[in-house]
Fold this protein.
Amino acid sequence: MVAERRFGPLIAVLLCVLGVLLLRLFHVQVLEHEVWAGEAAALVRSSRLLPSHRGKILDREGRVLVEDEDVWRVDLVYRDFRRGHPLGLVAHSRSTLEMRAVPLPEALSHLEAWAKEIVQLSPADLDRFAKGGALATATLSIPAAENPVRDARASRASDLRFYAAAFLDLGKQDREAIGRAEKQEPRSARSYAEIVAAERSTTSSALLADLEGRLSKQRETLSQLAGLLSTPERPGGESLDSLVAGLEAARERFEDTAADELFEEATRFSPGRISSTSLARAFELGWIAHILRWDPARTRAWAASRRAAFERDLAEVFAPRILARAGLEDGDSVAECLLDQIAAFYARGAPPESWRDLDEACVLSEIATLFDLPRRPHWEGEKRPALPLLERDFREAAEKSRDPWLALGTLADMAGASLDGSAATRNARVWAARWRAIAKSDRHLEGKAAQEALLAILSALEARALAASDAGFEACLATASPGVALAGPLPVAHDRIDRALQKERFLLKDLSSRSASLVPEASYPLVHLIERHAEVYRGFEVRPATRRIVRARGADGLLVAGALLGGVRGPSLRDLVAQEADTRRLRTSSLGAAWDDEEIADLASRLVRTDDKTGSSGVEGYFDAELRGRNGWFETSGLEELDEDRSHGVLKAAVDGKDLRLTLDRDLQLAAQETLAHPAPPADEATDRVWFQNPVGAIVLITPDGEVLAAASEPTRDGEPPAPGRDLERTHARERTLKRPTFNPPGSVFKPFVAAYALDRLGLDPGELLSCQPLGDGGSGYKSMHCHASPHGQSNLARALEVSCNAAFAQIGERYAPEQLIEMADLFGFGRPTGIRHLSGGDRERRAGLSEDYKLAGAEALPRKLREPAERMRFANGLGLIEATPMQVARATAGLLTGRLPDLRIAREVGGEPVEKAARDLPISQRAREIVCRALEAVVKEPGGTAYGKGLDRASLGFSFACKTGSADKRPLAPEAGGSDVAVRGQLKMLKQTWIAGWFPVEAPKAILVVMLHDVSETSNHTSVYVAAQFLRSPAVRKFVEGGEPGEVAR
Amino acid sequence: MREIAPPRRLLPFTLPRIPLSLRGLRWFEMDWHVLAIAAALLALGVTLVRAMAQADQAMERDGIVFGNHLTKVAVTLPALVLGLALRPRWLRRRAWAIYAMFLSLLLVLPFIGSDHNGARRWIKMPGGFDLQPSELAKIGLILALARVLYRNRLERLRDWGPPLAAALVPMALVAREPDLGTAMSFVPITLGMLYLAGAKPKVILRFLAGAAVIGVLAWQLQFGVQGYQLQRLETWLHSFRAVDLIAERNGAAFHSYHARVAIGNGGLFGTGIGEGVANRTGILPERDCDSVFAVIAEELGWVLTAGVMCLYMLMIALLLGSASGIRDRFSRLAAGGIAMYFAAHFVINVSVNLGLIPMTGITLPLFSTGGSSLLTTFLALGLATGLAARSEPALDKDAFQA
């Protein structure tokens, strides 16, 4: 039999096919197993970040100054709101019916009526509607559709079924009943309400009344929620109307973004890349409107807003991102990276490796195939590259010059970019020079100049690209309908729309599932309301967060050491850009077979999230790496919630930041701040009352071995009114103990160091008499150095220090060689860091915060300038070329006192580990130091001493105090400033920095005090001495002196 | 002498001869192996569907209901007996009528069918059962082709006309639904039966080559092919490399991607029944129906899946083997056609899930949950085993060609 013989070969063929199938199965299941297993793991993987807490900052006694506090934030998840909240359901069900974006405020006013209309529809109604039939509700009549597919009838009917079910709050049995009805009663007129009512053994009118009751309560519950949405700007909460308006704005943002993404999916470029005119004129956007249920007005509004939104993003997002990426590069790579990033901005699809690889620009490369046209459009200029980056001339010039800055300048020149419309900048070399200067002064390209320069180039390129694309769209319109003046809009090619439709579901789900912050720090009643009634507030989600809170405050709410402790901020764009590669790796981790779960968890916990806090200044900034914790990562796969045994969770526990125990004493710090904030004007008539009313200055208190006990600066609030006749420093809250915001000479507090060095190294005889004589100009002093009004006559060194004789120190200064003066300053730590930034390691320099102005201004020129005897005399008096911060003065004083120059410390312990102290021997003999220190004791004790009778004696303070006062003239007080000081004595006064630097108790020093007052019209013996006395009399200081800690230091 | 009265007629008319009879079956000669393998595969399928239903229930998904599947199996299983009981001679005589009946269902489908995913492929039946006429049309086509080829040996060119026309009419009607995948499954059945009927392999190969050329031209010229079909083709062409498929996972390649993930995740030994990612996420479309092979592969692994595939192919081979022993040409061709029906579904379904051919929806008989598929499967199995176990004499030409 012929036929019978044919079964064998057929079986053989089938066996061969089986072999092929088995081989393919082996390939997918065994050879590609790792790839697909990774994908499978990603599908069932659910992960969440476990936020860590930033470490606490404590004072030296362990009292909390700053810590993280757990707070709750409230987010809006629009997808949940749309699908679960009655207001969202009503608005979107109505939008589905009417095919227009029904605003939420409008839906709120028809809440009950519109919901009832939906549940009163029957499955048969929707079946007819899906097939293109007419549909009528109480307030709406939708005519039959000629083309049900074009009208999206099937999907709209499906959505309406969902909304009907959602309104009726169906249980399992209800759903089954509806399912049965939809299958078995295709022609039945029973409404959804009637079907469910029958299932629940009630009447449909009772069911509708219940629905009405539930919905009418929604206004009340939403009002309750609105009332609790308080922010610092709106402490009383919001009104219902403003809440609903806010929700509507969130919806519009989501829908705009969804439309953008759909458009981009189809066209491969953002709608903002083309002019609003072209978008509205050339593009048929009905398909987007159908998906989003928009009416023509909403579609037009979207199209009209795209270009403006893009231009806003260009300035606020794209340009800063380009600069941030380039700012991470070094040297000439910056220019090259800028060119690469500009090329990437215009690239079609994936960004090219280099700008030289850019072969076609986005938009322009798509135009010819965007629409289904009868023939290919051609337009003048199609072959001419719209972007200079693509021009051969540009590329050849760039290759020839081999100077990327010049290439960037050439790009700007060819694009026609100019700054402020200035023709002078329209030159490649001018542009190149400008960029070089910007990169030199602003290494990370974070400044305004870089931003403006880049925006000028991008704007010029945009103008060219827009003109070219507009011409292209006109050509498409002309091709579509030759001879017709106003053709269009044109439908986008089918395959492109199909591509967008393929992704529509995921795209919309993804976008609408993203949460938007509603209240960053929610009150407890708000959190309780949402959590307790989660079913009522669908779409509103409570999420945990933390905030940094300052616990220690003064009586009037003054932050303790606010300027020194610094603050925290969210990550900068630079931070985020720097970790782009890691973020990408994390997102695509499932593709890399080499990745294991631990690596993913480790990477995830290292990445900085947008809501992570980073120390930006002060202690917070400098110790950020220690204070900042590591976020944890918990990843689970699959159905763990159903079966504990299946749990394959990967846990990388959150590691809280280390606690930082500072050397600061909260009480001493507060006392210092209080003293500066509210200095008590003394009875001394010669004082500067203007300063006492408008104080600007600093107080530093350190232990002899360098621990900072207090570091106060005034003012502590920005925006204080400026003091009359003084500079604007009163208006700025700055840290002034480590910084020198203005010229800051130490004046006579520098003299003890000059004296000690001269005694030890220059052979100065302590008994040698130095003269202070009247000068011909009515003053007294020595040569060009003026002293006090009345001459001091002959003084030995001790007396010169006691009365602070400028003439004597001018003569000592004359004996110094320039190099010796520089060496003396250097020995006492002037021109050197104080050591407060003590952490060693590679990232030391990169740490923000606790920055100090330690360098001497013009240090390079110092040896030359000090060859002038007058400059040496001034230098020896702490004037002219010498400047110092209060911390530097305090440290030098400690060195003088103890013979060891300590490195200052602000941290005692980091994470429980003590911070090592450091100091270096001061190569000044003990004899010399003792002579100077004894002389400084006399400043307070002896009549004639500059601090004598100023309330700094043992009787006034309860302990002994030794010090040196100092005043450094800076500039004349402006005559027009007036004020009592000027009027009383009728002479022009000089504005000064006045100082006092001393230690207490004298016999067993526990602390070194430095007070500096800024822009004072009177000398220190009329100003700073009183401020010092006020501070030293404070209970905190008394308690400190009486306490056992810190250890006494022998001289 | 007493007259013998003629027997009294109970009815005033004569009943037609009953087409159903189990008496002619030679029970001991029935291919019980086929039925045993089919029962084993069905049991495995039921177990898998139960695991799917349990996963859906646990995850509170509106998905697969095991009770529904069991009901469908119970309701459609009698079709096996029906197939066994149908007498070959009656089938041969009524083949055109059966073909016409199923064809008429396809013809009325645009008017009475219900829409699903933009296609009109089902007729709502009482009790919530949806009938897919294109499945039954395959049985109709097999019987019609067996009837045409009963005396037609395809010796002349014009002999090809009737069988090709018989195949093209239902194919065109099914393709119009639109359901190109099911329509294309008619091709291997038809070609297989033509080959068994004596068509020269060379002619079949030419026919296939011609069809391929037409297909490529239609694709290139985008003529007669719908947009979504072109899209599927494009997606398929770019789905061989894992990276490309992953890149398109949220777009056109969604279904292919999830099928591949499930299969690849199975590895050598599988995840265990109910433990696969397809069940745990419920994201694989049609995992109880067209994509059931992906679930099998994932949960059983390569070793056991290869065993299942071999078993399936063994069943097909046994069906072909028992068909080859039938002396009656009609019965032999019908049984062979049924074997080709199983082979076509098996090869297409597995190939689709493995990405060897573009995505199309086709069931895997004995595993998939569709009621129409189950009905057709049991009916076909009954017919194939019944025809092979009949003792009705054959007087056609083949019967005398020893």
In short: The longest helix of chain A spans residues 448-480.
